[in-house]
Design brief:
The chain has 2 domains: about 150 residues, Glutaredoxin; about 45 residues, no CATH class. The chain contains 6 helices and 9 strands, in the order βββααβαβαββββαα. The strands form 2 sheets. It has a 7-stranded mixed sheet with strand order 2-1-5-4-3-8-9. Strands 6-7 form a two-stranded antiparallel ribbon. It is globular and about 60 Å long. It starts with 12 loop residues before the first strand and ends with a helix.
Length: about 210
């Protein structure tokens, strides 16, 4: 299921903010009209690939903030588990020092609505409700514009860590398109030529590149 060019699903959920404070009513709606958002899902606290990604987003946080982009993480763990992990030093497998919000999707409804829950409920032959797959979030990343519309999404399986630099590149591409009205060709990065979305524009770009 693709959410691109659709409104991002709304939610209100607990979260840990500033690495230390639990709030009960976190929502992405606070950013509407103000900031783009990188909203990413990861499978579980206290795991292996997840801290590398969470810390990598923190290392690049100033770059996102420079572009007026909020970074928000989410998993199906509780807010208390988030907070406990945030208090574990990095050299012990923790994520101490992370300051952007981490949302607690205990009901799994946020992951489900964003299409990244790693399985689904079904009934077995005895008529019992069971879960098929993994009841945790896949590694989904969503770029949401200031109007609350999803402009980019990518979803990785559990073992496949994502590229944080590419999340920045897509932010740059969206902001370039919005500012200049040009489109961004393959492998575009900030500072490279973009092009007009016309036959002539494509020809001109290809002749120069």
């Amino acid at each position: 299921m693709s959410l691109v060019n659709k409104p991002a699903p709304k939610f209100v959920a607990p979260a840990v903010i500033n690495g230390e404070e639990i709030v009960s009513d976190f929502s992405l709606e606070q950013y509407l009209g103000k900031k783009e958002v990188i909203f990413f899902f990861y499978p579980k606290d206290f795991t292996f690939v997840c801290p590398t990604e969470i810390l990598a987003f923190q290392e690049k946080l100033a770059e996102f903030e420079k572009r007026n982009v909020a970074v928000v993480g989410c998993s199906t763990d509780t807010e208390e588990t988030h907070l406990a992990w945030l208090n574990v030093p990095k050299n012990q497998g923790g994520i101490e020092g992370v300051t952007y919000p981490l949302v607690a999707d205990v009901s799994k409804s946020i992951a489900y609505n964003f299409g990244v829950l790693g399985g689904d409920y079904d009934y077995n032959e005895e008529g019992e409700l069971v879960f098929e797959g993994a009841p945790i979030a896949l590694r989904g990343t969503f770029l949401i514009d200031k109007n609350g519309i999803v402009k980019h999404q990518v979803v990785n399986d559990f073992p496949l860590g994502r590229n944080i630099d590419d999340a920045l590149r897509v932010v740059d591409a969206l902001q370039h398109v919005e500012k200049h009205g040009e489109v961004c060709p393959a492998n575009w990065e900030e500072g490279k030529d973009a092009m007009q979305a016309t036959r002539e524009g494509v020809a001109d770009y290809l002749s120069k590149n």
